[in-house]
């Protein structure tokens, strides 16, 4: 009896978070140290008695920061729950009370007290001048806040929420909290600027004037004039989404449903554009198709016509964005196309359907989740992109560039930028709900717990020919563009002096071997190592958050699920320029003071790129039969064990897509990075842009080319690390041998 009671009252997860809360409160620096979270100089610089590095308990003991004292009550309460069984009503009550008091008080005091004392005049009027200040949360504050959050979720689970599943309730609570803090809060702070007048008041009339501006909604293009930026952006996004989805499907079919021998080369080639800074692709296109471009001049001389500037405007932006975002569609679709059950296709052929009928009536409908998600990502990426329109747009105005100029231009009109961002958000959310409506509530399950050793049939000839022609044609075009990029990195002065040289690489990445060791003397090394470090930290975190979120969306039903999914897509729908500015506005003062640190770069990458992991995970998990989860739970595994041992091994394409995309986008991001870099944390793209602004194109291209090869190596390593899904299917070659 004593052993049974002991088992019922042992709560290892609860014990962990109780200990974490006390450690954060009593042992770790409560506030952000001067050198940022990534520095540990505080261990030998006045810790734990120095006010800047002291834990909360030491501050209170010294009579300082007494507004932290109420947190002791919230830390003591869960101690009384440790020896109670979960069935005891007081177990849930104590945890909910502790979490609510602790987390709520942290939020209240964090926003009420800043670096100059009280943040609100009415608090100073009620309590008088504070005579003290506080900075942003450090290790202690963050760990203690996390402890309170997960104490609260464990209490909610103990009351029976979602069948009392601690992992699911904690995952939902954790994702909601971080999305609220790092997505909703900064964006809301930015969008409120849409209603602010010049004297700092709020006015709906100001918002309406900016919303219904002719520059935004004009239909003058039908009368020979310019169309508004909103209509330009919408048409561009639809066109690019359609083209990238079609090309991504062609590549996925060629790799999985054809006898093409060079599939690995095609996989590598389709990934190239997303590991390249966007403006580099634009420069290569200008070299090929610009007014003095090699292709333009060749055809002008051949046909005796005057070269034109046809590239600048919508055509050039469409080409550049299609080059840049086709790999995203391919990464999403490859897992979905591979995931279609061969047994269903074989059953169709057994019933005397030919290969075309099988593809059209069986295979293609089962790919709808992937097609819908690829289209949505292409649409959103096109809407939010500003690098390509900035280089190639000419007089073709789009929302993202208008937002950029409203923020960084002479006008510095945050209100106009916020209104434009709201319009852009409306378009992207409309696409999101249109996608949901198209998919409906149909089942796309193709992988169950049953054995499936079939082999995918080859494409029908009538489909294979156009697919191969389109895919190979685009692959050759991509190879030509990248040939121009590599060529541009080894010429003296691009377009002027084409003599070959390696001086740009030497300037950027020279190394000197001295007695003390290796000395990195190249001008680009500092930004290179910073970029590698930030991307390596952000990529696994992005994939983890994205796939856990996808699991919750596809496998769990809970109140507010639609709002939860909306929140996960919100940061992806807002241009990076807006994300950058909103992060500066939100996180340069307490309670989260991380502007100018490496942490803000990591966080911006996580929440900017997380939706790709979410959409790839949803597309892949839609094909996994829920009976797999149910079987695992029936055999005694909990939700965490089921997710880790059953679901994750079947999500390797989605994991690879999330890791690859988040890593390379962190390496090549431009828009948000421009606002968030600092002297200590300079990223590769901001360094390259600086070289371009100084007309040092050779060094910029050499640096970009180096990044391309580094990221190709990283993608290959991630492929080996993650591996392929093993579900007992034969390969095409094995099938051919057996027949």
Automatic annotation (TrEMBL):
SUPFAM superfamilies membership: MetI-like
UniProt KW keywords: Cell membrane, Membrane, Transmembrane, Transmembrane helix, Transport
Residue ranges of the TM segments: 12-33, 66-82, 94-115, 135-154, 166-188, 234-256, 268-290, 310-337, 358-380, 417-434, 463-487, 528-554, 566-586, 654-677, 697-722
Membrane topology term: Multi-pass membrane protein
Lineage top rank: taxon: Bacteria
Name of one Pfam family that matches: BPD_transp_1
One cellular-component annotation, GO: plasma membrane
GO process annotations (BP): transmembrane transport
Location(s), subcellular: Cell membrane
Location of the ABC transmembrane type-1 domain: 230-435, 528-718
Stated family: Belongs to the binding-protein-dependent transport system permease family.
Protein name (database record): Iron ABC transporter, permease protein, putative
Source organism (scientific name): Roseobacter denitrificans (strain ATCC 33942 / OCh 114) (Erythrobacter sp. (strain OCh 114))
């Amino acid at each position: 009896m004593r052993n049974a009671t002991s088992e019922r009252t042992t709560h290892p997860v609860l014990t962990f978070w109780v200990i974490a809360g006390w450690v954060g409160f009593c042992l770790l620096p409560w506030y952000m140290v001067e050198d940022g979270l990534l520095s540990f100089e505080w261990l030998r610089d006045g810790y734990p008695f120095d006010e800047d590095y002291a834990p909360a308990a030491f501050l209170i003991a010294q009579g300082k920061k007494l507004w932290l004292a109420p947190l002791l009550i919230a830390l003591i309460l869960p101690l009384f729950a440790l020896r109670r069984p979960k069935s005891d009503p007081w177990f849930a009550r104590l945890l909910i009370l502790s979490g609510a008091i602790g987390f709520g008080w942290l939020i209240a005091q964090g926003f009420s007290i800043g670096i100059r004392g009280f943040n609100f005049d009415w608090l100073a009027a009620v309590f008088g001048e504070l005579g003290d200040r506080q900075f942003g949360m450090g290790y202690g504050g963050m760990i203690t806040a996390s402890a309170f959050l997960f104490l609260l979720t464990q209490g909610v689970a103990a009351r029976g929420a979602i069948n009392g599943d601690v992992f699911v309730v904690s995952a939902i609570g954790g994702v909601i909290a971080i999305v609220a803090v790092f997505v909703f809060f900064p964006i809301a702070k930015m969008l409120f600027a849409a209603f602010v007048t010049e004297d700092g008041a709020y006015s709906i009339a100001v918002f309406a004037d900016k919303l219904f501006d002719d520059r935004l909604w004009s239909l003058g293009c039908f009368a020979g004039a310019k169309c508004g930026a909103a209509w330009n952006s919408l048409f561009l996004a639809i066109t690019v989404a359609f083209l990238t989805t079609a090309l991504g499907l062609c590549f996925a079919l060629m790799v999985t449903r054809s006898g093409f021998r060079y599939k690995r080369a095609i996989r590598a080639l389709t990934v190239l554009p997303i590991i390249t800074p966007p403006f580099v692709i634009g420069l290569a296109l200008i070299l090929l198709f610009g007014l003095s471009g090699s292709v333009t001049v060749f055809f002008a001389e051949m046909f005796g016509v005057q070269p034109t500037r046809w590239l600048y405007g919508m055509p050039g932006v469409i080409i550049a964005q299609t080059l840049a975002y086709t790999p995203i569609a391919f990464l999403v679709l490859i897992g979905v196309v591979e995931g279609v059950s061969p047994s269903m296709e074989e059953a169709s052929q057994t019933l005397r359907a030919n290969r075309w009928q099988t593809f059209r009536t069986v295979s293609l409908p089962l790919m709808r989740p992937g097609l819908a998600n690829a289209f949505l990502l292409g649409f959103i990426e096109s809407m939010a992109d500003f690098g390509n329109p900035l280089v190639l747009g000419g007089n073709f105005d789009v929302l993202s560039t208008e937002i950029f100029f409203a923020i960084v231009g002479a006008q510095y009109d945050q209100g106009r930028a916020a209104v434009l961002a709201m319009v852009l958000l409306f378009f992207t959310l409309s696409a999101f709900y249109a996608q949901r409506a198209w998919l409906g509530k149909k089942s796309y399950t193709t992988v169950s717990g049953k054995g499936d050793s079939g082999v995918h049939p080859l494409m029908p000839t009538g489909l294979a020919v156009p697919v191969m022609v389109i895919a190979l044609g685009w692959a050759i075009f991509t190879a030509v563009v990248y040939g121009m990029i590599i060529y541009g990195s080894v010429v003296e002065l691009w377009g002027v002096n084409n003599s070959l040289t390696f001086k740009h690489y030497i300037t950027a990445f020279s190394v000197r071997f001295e007695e003390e060791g290796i000395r990195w003397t190249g001008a680009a090394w500092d930004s290179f190592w910073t970029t590698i470090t930030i991307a390596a930290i952000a990529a696994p975190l992005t994939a983890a958050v994205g796939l856990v979120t996808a699991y919750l969306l596809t496998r769990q039903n809970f109140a507010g699920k639609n709002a939860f999914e909306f929140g996960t897509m919100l940061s992806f729908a807002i241009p990076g320029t807006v994300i950058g500015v909103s992060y500066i506005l939100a996180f340069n003062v307490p309670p989260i003071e991380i502007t100018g640190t490496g942490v803000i770069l990591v966080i911006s990458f996580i929440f900017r790129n997380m939706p790709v992991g979410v959409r790839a995970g949803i597309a892949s998990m839609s094909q996994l039969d829920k009976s797999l989860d149910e079987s695992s739970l029936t055999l005694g595994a909990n939700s965490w064990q089921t997710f880790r041992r059953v679901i994750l091994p079947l999500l390797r394409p989605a994991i690879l897509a999330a890791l690859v995309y988040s890593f390379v986008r962190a390496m090549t991001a431009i828009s948000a990075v421009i606002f968030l870099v600092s002297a200590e944390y300079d990223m590769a793209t901001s360094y390259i842009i600086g070289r371009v602004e100084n007309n040092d194109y050779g060094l910029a291209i050499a640096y970009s080319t180096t990044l391309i090869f580094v990221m190709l190596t990283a993608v290959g390593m991630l492929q080996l690390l993650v591996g392929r899904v093993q579900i007992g299917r034969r390969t095409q070659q094995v099938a051919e041998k057996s027949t």
